[in-house]
Fold:
Amino acid sequence: MPHLVTVRGHRSDGRRLRLYVPVLPLLLVLSPLLLAVPAGLIACLATRVSLAVVPAALRGAGRLLWALPGTRFEMEQGRTALLISVR
Structure:
């Protein structure tokens, strides 16, 4: 699991912007969203959607998290440029 995400970009005036986002504190702040998982399971049961897709979805999310270290994402639109790299 990555420990630090670096977000780099350019402001409209041309100055560079660099943000370092620690993953663990961010996960702790977002942990209340984990309540959405039981709510999703209840919604699946209420709408009679098969729960067989849930393990596959969790496995896919886990594989995505393990694949993140070393990932670079670049985007440019007009005068704005953004680079995100995960370490």
Q: What stands out?
A: Strands lie at 4-10, 16-22, 72-77, 80-86.
